[in-house]
Structures are given as structure tokens and as C-alpha cells.
Amino acid sequence: MEVTVNLGQRSYPVLIDQGIAGTLPAIISEKFPNRRFAVVTNTTIAGYYKSLIDLWEKNLDCSLITIPDGEQYKTIDTWKSILDFLLENRFERSSVVVALGGGVVGDIAGFAAASFLRGIPYVQVPTTLLAMVDSSIGGKTAVDHPMGKNLIGAFHQPSMTLVDTNFLATLPHREFISGYAELFKYGFIGGKDTFNFILEENEAMLKRESIPLLDGIRRSIQIKANVVSEDEFETKGLRALLNFGHTFAHSIERFFNFEQVLHGEAVIWGMLCACALGEKTGTIPQEMRSAYKNILDHLPVPALPSVPDASKLYSYMFSDKKVSSGKLRFIVPTLPGQSIVKKDINEADVLSVLSSIFKAD
Ligand SMILES: NC(=O)c1ccc[n+]([C@@H]2O[C@H](COP(=O)([O-])OP(=O)(O)OC[C@H]3O[C@@H](n4cnc5c(N)ncnc54)[C@H](O)[C@@H]3O)[C@@H](O)[C@H]2O)c1
């Protein structure tokens, strides 16, 4: 299966299949003949996928750069260690970075590729569900700063993304659910057909049944590719739709110090809040309420460590980097599979939604 991200001369394919990672040397040597490759991965993936990496090393002129595992290492220091390696080992403008990992590896390796010698090509090989349906497409690369997440980075599109769903076999359950939140999100923005698909295949996908999951991943990638093709730099408002549930989610993550709650877990709570806000502000037509109840009933809602405080959550929303001129922006659902961006929602409505969703039993 192939999806194209259409960006003129910078267009690129997203190849999606089970077991496709074994064929990476042939695929990328054809696209980049006679090049040197630097494969960036982390310690966990290097352990699980040693034989795959050995196969790549045997069939490509490539070096392995292994970074520590975890968001806490998505830093300037780790980025610099990748650049140091590339410089010390005399990689050149013609060289290619391959990012093998989840969103952390993809973002940091992508940023290294964006900045090394003013930018060299890179290929994304996502190994988490979140990276497959979200971070490996769209060209956002970044590292974190003590002041906040993803504050230093660049838009730099990959030359290719290779999605092999076999990687999901080793993904821990919480990480799977976290990525699934992003896949589920496309049900709110990807049109009625996707909305219905997610309702029908939710349980099968949660059981990691390969055919529906592959289909769900392909559909998600297609939607993300369409949005990125239309609004690469998030200037037309379309790409903002991908942040459905995220204004709430970011404040939940911040409430728990970015430590106890995974991003996608917060997104699930954020989607519940976004739907409640839609209902509160009347963007969900009365007759659609039951369709929405149906989809919300299918959300795999994770437990939170404690009940977050509504007013604190609200205040944290203003430190989100997507706040513009001090105005909060919410994505709220309208018809099944459709959502809109709203900037004029008042504080009382948001607080009321937060208090109704987050209450002690
Ligand atoms: N660039 C973008 O557009 C974009 C979009 C969304 C999120 N992000 C970023 O993505 C990051 C989160 O990504 P993530 O959820 O993939 O987390 P992650 O990269 O930290 O991976 C989660 C965990 O799973 C492990 N792992 C990865 N693949 C595995 C596999 N196949 N088997 C077993 N373990 C595996 C990792 O080592 C890690 O411990 C955040 O930094 C976020 O800011 C970027």
C-alpha cells in the first residue's frame, strides 16, 4: 500500500505493509544509490530488532547511532551527540539519516537531518502506533527545552516513510493505547466513512487484529497526508484539526508533570472533553448526540493517577505553544467525522466541561 504526501518537488511516499522493514535496504538503495546511511535508534529498539538492524548493516553502507530511550533524552544534548557522530565520521551532504523508532527517535533524528550541513534527507521507519499514524508524516522535527516540549525544531519533510505494522507485536499495551488515541482521533476529523469504520472495527483494532489495524493505519495516514499536503506549515487552519482533543490533553499532561500520563492517554481524555464542549456550545446537532455517545463509548479511557483540578487545567492551557495572542483555540466536533476550530469559547463553558469530566467518584 502506498500513500503520497503531495508537496510538489518535496512529495514523498508512505509505504505501508506487514514485514516491509526487511526490504528497506533494497528500497532505499534504489531511491538513494551509492549513499551512506546513518541509522538512528534507541537502546530498547536496538535490543528488540537486533537481527533486522544486522540485516540492514549487511546490505547497506550504514552506521548505527543508538541514543538512550525516553522523552527525557529528547534534548539538545542528544541532538548534538548525533551531529558529533555524523561530523566525526565524515558523513556528507549526500548521506541519509534513517530514523528507526517511535516519535522521540523520529523527531530528534529528523531534527538532526534538518540541521546537519543545513539539511540532508531522512527516512522514517516508525515502530510505535503513534509514530505510524502521526509523527512520521508531516515533517515536524524537534527537541524539548526545559521551558516546554518541542520548542526547538524545524519543518523538514522525510524523503520516505516506511510503515511496517509487524513492529507493533512488541509494543507495550500502554504505548499501543496511546497511539490508538491518535488513530481514533481521525474518526472525528476524517469524514463520515472513517467515523463509521472506527465504530465498526474498534474492538478488532484494539485486539491488534492485523487486517483491520492495517486498514485503520492506512486510513489515518491518508488523512494526515491530505491535511499536510494542504497545510504544510499550519497556516491555513486545516492542520490545526489534527489537534482534536489536544488543547485539553496538553494541560492534562502538564498537570501530571509530563511524567505519569502518556500523551495519547491524555488525548483520550481530551477527546472526551472536546465532545462535551461541542455539546455545551451547541456545535453537535441534537440529532447527532447518540452517534457521538456511540463513538465515545468505544474510547479505551485510561485511568488517571488522580482527579485533576479544573481551574489548574484551564490555566495550563495558556502555556500551550499553540495559543495565539492569548486566545485559546479548541477543536470541537460537528457532524460525524467533522470538526471545526473555535476561538470564541468562554471560560465558564470550558470550566464547566472540565468539572463535569473530572470529578471524584
Ligand atoms: N513530529 C510530530 O508530528 C509529532 C506528532 C506527535 C507526537 N510527536 C512526538 O512523539 C513523541 C512520542 O512518541 P511515541 O509515543 O512513539 O513515544 P516513544 O518514541 O517514546 O516510544 C514509546 C516507548 O516505546 C518503545 N518502543 C518503540 N517502538 C517499540 C516497539 N516496536 N516495541 C517495543 N517498544 C517500542 C520506545 O523505546 C519507548 O520506550 C513525543 O516526543 C511527541 O512530542 C511528534
Question: Care to describe what's here?
Answer:
With 361 residues, the chain is α/β, with parallel strands linked by helices. Helices cover 46% and strands 17% of the residues. The protein folds into 2 domains: 2-170, Rossmann fold, CATH 3.40.50.1970; 185-357, Dehydroquinate synthase-like - alpha domain (Dehydroquinate synthase-like, alpha domain, Up-down Bundle). The strands form 3 sheets. It has a 7-stranded mixed β-sheet with strand order 1-2-9-6-5-3-4, sandwiched between helices. The protein has a two-stranded antiparallel ribbon with strand order 7-8. Strand 7 (140-145) and strand 8 form a beta hairpin. Helix 7 runs parallel beside helix 11 (263-281) and helix 10 (246-255) crosses helix 13 (310-317). It binds nicotinamide-adenine-dinucleotide. Nicotinamide-adenine-dinucleotide is lined by residues 42, 44-45, 48, 69, 71, 74, 101-105, 107, 127-128, 130-131, 134-135, 138, 140, 149-150, 167, 170-171, 175, 178, 263. Nicotinamide-adenine-dinucleotide binds at residues 42, 44-45, 48, 69, 71, 74, 101-105, 107, 127-128, 130-131, 134-135, 138, 140, 149-150, 167, 170-171, 175, 178, 263.
